[in-house]
Amino acid sequence: MATAMSVSFGLVSVPVLVSPATEDHTVRLHEVHRGDCGGRLRHRRVCELDGQEIPSQDVARGVERPDGTTVVLDDAALEGLPLSTKHVIEVLGFVPADTIDPISYQRAYYARPASAAAERPYEVLVAALARAGLVGIAKAAITSRERLAVLRPRHGVLTVHLVFWPDEIREPGPAPTRPVTDREMELAELLLTHLKGVDPTAVRDEYAEALAQLVAAVSSGRELEAAAAPREPPQDLMAALEASIRAARRDEGSPR
Questions:
Q1: Where is the Ku domain (predicted)?
Q2: Which end of the chain has fewer CB atoms surrounding its CB within 10 Å, N or C?
Q3: Where residue 11 sits, what CATH number does that domain have?
């Protein structure tokens, strides 16, 4: 379902319809009763004070205050939240696309023009971003809370990526400090050269295939062939790199 919003930058406002840009095809594993029963387990909302099961229409949000009391906020109260970005994607400025750390990205949405009158300014914005190699840094409340967002063109359509706030990204900690030798670097770069280039659309979801095999095996009562054990780290890195390069060269010369 599309959400009506506006992209606002400078004195320009472009009405858009925002809808999810991705979908999850992951096979769902349900919680069930172990054993022969196999009944599906359902989670119910139960009030911790009176023990009653609460229907969805009686569920609200609540914020606990420092004194221990809870302020109940229903949908009507949340709709009155004094937040300008509830219906507006507020562009704060533009930066080069390669300055955004990929670890920041969360869910993506497509924003399309909401009316005929919005089409021209929308097309100009998308084309200008593409030509300049820039993305927009914005604030938006596409979900229930205000988030930081990145606006970028994709195949002629404006894409809105929700991103983490800077303080939500954890630092990785100290990196390994053992220096890499010139020969190790030379072989690693040579291997990267031989292995570069892959078509992501040709990559299969092997988890879904393996899960289907497992379901078939369990339902028929037969044993499933064990997966190959993961490779151990090489004892001789240089030898492993050289062998990998030779194998990559053979693959390059073989017909596909």
A1: 51-181
A2: C
A3: 2.40.290.10
- Predicted local confidence at residue 91, as pLDDT: 94
Residue 40's φ and ψ, nearest 5 degrees, are -70, 135
Range of the domain at 120: 3-22+81-168
Q: What total of structural domains would you count in the chain?
A: 2
Look at residue 88 and tell me if it is in a domain. yes
At 16, give phi and psi (nearest 5°).
-135, 160
C-alpha of 99 from chain center? 18
Q: What pLDDT, on a 0 to 100 scale, did the predictor assign at position 3?
A: 87
